[in-house]
Amino acid sequence: MTVLRHTRGLKVEIAKPVRRRSLLLAVLKSWEFLLLTLLAAGAVASTSASPYFLDVWNLSDATFNFTEKAIVALPMALLIIAREIDISVAGIMALASLVMGLGAQAGAAWWLVALLGLTAGLLCGMLNGALVTMFRVPAIVATIGTMSLFRGVGYATLGDQVIKSYPPGFEAFGQGYVAGPLSIEFAIFLGLAVLFGVVLHRTVVGRRIYAIGSNPEVARFSGIAISRYRFVLFSVVGLAAGLASVCLTSRLGSTRPSIAVGWELEIITMVVLGGVSILGGVGSILGVVLAALLMGLVTFGLGLLNVPGIVMQIVVGSLLVVVIAIPALLARLGLIMKALP
Amino acid sequence: MTPPLIELSGITKAFAGVRALVDGTLELNEGEVTALIGENGAGKSTLVKILTGIFPPDSGTIRLAGDAVTIGSTVNAERLGITAVHQEAVVFDDLSVAENIFVSNRPRGRFGMVDWPKMRRQARGLLAELEVDLDPNLPLRSLSIAQKHLVQIARALSRKARLVIMDEPTAALSHREAEDILRIIERLKYEGHAVLFISHKFEDVMRVADRYAVFRDGATVGTGRVAETNTSELIRLMVGRPVDQIFPKIDVPFSEEMLRVEGFCHPTEFDDVSFSVRGGEILGVYGLVGAGRSEVMKAVFGVTRPSAGRVFVKGQAIMIGGPADAIAAGIVYVPEDRQNQGAAVKQSILDNISLPNLSRLSTAGFVNRGRERTVADALTRRLEVRMSHLYQPVEDLSGGNQQKVVIAKWLATEPKILILDEPTKGIDVGSKAAVHRFVAELVGQGLAVVMISSELPEVLGMADRIMVMAQGRVRHTFTRAQATPEAVVRAATDA
Amino acid sequence: MKAAVPLPVPPHPAVASLRRWLDGRDVALAALNLVLLFAVALKFPDFLAPRNMADILDDTAILFLMALAEMLVILTGAIDLSVAANLALTGVSVALVNAAHPGLGVAPIIAMALVMGAALGAGNAVLICKLGLPSIVVTLGTLAIYRGCIFLLTGGAWVNSNQMSDAFLNFIRVSFLGLTTLTWIAILGIAAAGLFLRFSVAGRNLYVIGGNRLAATYAGIDPGRTQALAFLISGAVSGLCGYFWVSRFAVAYVEVAQGFELQVIAACVIGGVSIAGGLGTVPGVVLGALFLGIIKNALPLIGVSPFWQMAIAGTVITLAVVINARSEGRAQGRRILQENTA
Taking the complete model, does pTM exceed 0.80, yes or no? Predict the structure, then answer.
């Protein structure tokens, strides 16, 4: 229904066509549904390739290779929705692992070691936050710098050595199970997914994060303390990296400076693949969870085929590029894909 | 009889449902200065953008020296000899003056290499022609706005322009600097260029322009020789319709003083600004572009910090460290820039309306969706927002309805003082009237309203008192009885 | 008649010329480098010996070239994190070619390195300049893709020095006037970069689009094409340096130059190149790279393990960006109030 009024000398208004909102249609057109379809397709393909795929214990084993990254991807999604980015997360994991190793060597108990890891991660995140909010350094450069600073401290301290002795009880984080095939790591991830999902989609904090990413100027004019939110987000990402490092170090049972090398790429890919726009303001936790599962499936499958890690990087890199290119390509072709939140 | 250099006839242009130009007609001759006059939103800058090739007209013809042409692109416009000096200086701060002048046509020497000495020499030459003493090596960042304008003019000259368009060149300048610009315009005229001079300052127009064209609501409503007219006549053409027919003015009893601002100062933007507003009162703030009105209000709202000054709400002094403090005190601000500062256009109507009010719409940090919807529903109905549903992205709405959403979002916070910055800029007449009706309703309920506007009829029709600002200072405050169009405009242009 | 607002006093012509080539920051950086040299020389006087200086230059030559190439990209307001992966992939490829056809000579190898590097750079250019995707994310992806491709080529195997022809290895080592070919190429590269950025329209346009992209379009300059050129040159230089690297270290494998992109960016940032684009000088970048080179060569002398390099690079980058951010804080707000001098 378009109404055109012609009155000479006056500005006219053309009413927009009215469209009824169809919930079903919206769901089907959403990015999350696409991911779900891909995941289902992947699962079907894997099952037909090998009947052992659907074995619960195999699936549980498969989760280990992506859970730690996914733990970091959750707060990273919030950060990217707020129009920031942190590429130092892998460096934070390395530094946290180092701190834990030194603590273990000094004889700390398992819970203190874990606490050290978390604290290290939090402090690193706070440094990033301070650089971006107080010193007004653009996040990209700030985290390129801290990325090498954090990991560099690891190299400077350990060189090419390895710390292998951790207190008993520590291995539970990365190697323990809550009940049956449900690992502690995966349970932590699921719990955090629920937590971040609720925060982002149901609370005032989440709404403000979307606002900051969608239009920082409007957010500022609406009285939102943007700097404070950014600082907290960077800190939480750091904390999550610390937690992921606790799980990873505990799973490997060792620390070396090259731990988690290249993980920032995979974590960011998980977030972007999950439908979070790199430009901010768009994305959902469900999408990130599905993307994490999808990437886990792909890398697990490739691992079974004995594809070396470095070649898997090609897949991840290509995935990242393709995912961010699709909207631009479609826009160019004159189609606009609207993914509803 | 030589044909005019540029002749525009029947130019139309519409954007997403709003007709910016309905019948643009203009004649520009060489060796002549033509003044283009009209209110904000009358279609002047759209016309300029069409002339400079930024976008094409929807219909109409453009003739260059008698032959019909299609301008097509900014590069082509320059090739045809059409250049513009924009209001917001389109310059490169980190490059030198010389390089800014020659940014699209650097002089080349051997092997096609950029010839810097030649560039500097030619720059000096151009600046000397304009009788401006400026070192071509200076980085542009170190120059004042006036000097940046001069550089843009020099650039226009370097492009061998036949038509030089100047968009509000003296808007943000001091008397002395404006003098320089006007002198240069006269010089351009004598050298045979055609000059299109867009300005609100009637004093300047009467001084340098040979002919005039008045725009109103997207069409040319009057042209003629400047010598055969006067300021009052121009104002009459500009404003057009009789004022009292459009704006509903209901007499509302004034209550206590809601907002008082004392001695607001800023190092570069405004000085010693004081005013007060009572409940039920509309304070109009009129001034030309660049008078500093938005800057003052942004400082009151806490977006920027004044260097001195105090704010009182209901007699109580309050500290404003940021917008959150202002909002808490009951002051809200609807910005001029709707798309970038008023509404997050990609987000839904519901999200936008809730944003400043989230703490009130939530329990223990969790957003209460039911309450949110109820509030948004009530407000959109009250403001008669034309939309499909609350979850629609704001960018789908027309300009007028977008503005209603922005006002709605602030009303949800139950403010005491509403500061509106150009609330009806660029929106259609129907929505304009609705906004005005609504503002009248709000003051009827006891709100104090400060309304910044560059539209004379709006200010004269709506305001109980009119504060006129120029160059960062308050010139005069008129009561409703004292305010005549002439007096107000005179106060605003009297530098 | 003079302009209304008082003007800054123009400096003496000789000083003005000098100021055009070096700004205050570059002078400070040069001084810093000298201080560093002399500080080391206090303990180890041989550090300043010509032979050692030549070694430092040879060691830093690749960094000079890569940092200048990266600067071109950063000037336009983008960033290229894939330069080291490009270097590695091209380097390994030419090494493989050389191993398969030892009699081919150096010229075709160099040509191939340039072309392949440019092609990899073009990959970035299409995504970033044509599709408008954010450069940080795109180059994070291409970084992984390019490096992964090395494995596809070699299967994890190494190309060793005994598989490389003499010509392949010796080209960059030939000494001329006390400096190696590689050093001379770097010097040529520095001169070329200086000329390009100062005297060519394309070079000047990099500053223009980095400074104000919209105004550039109004001035008739195409930001996409200009930026694409920067990525192409950056790619070509990375490719060329790929050959230099594998030849200099006489080995080619997957982890060649792993993490080198950090050094490259550090050199730029220390040299005063603004990440926002539009600001940066050749002397600055050269001095920044030299700074890192001196530190790297001084570390073993002082007894600090090379494992400290990453931490130092990280600290230096972090400090440099904070300093840059402070000096870049530009005053906002329109100047509405004017001095009403009669």
Answer: yes
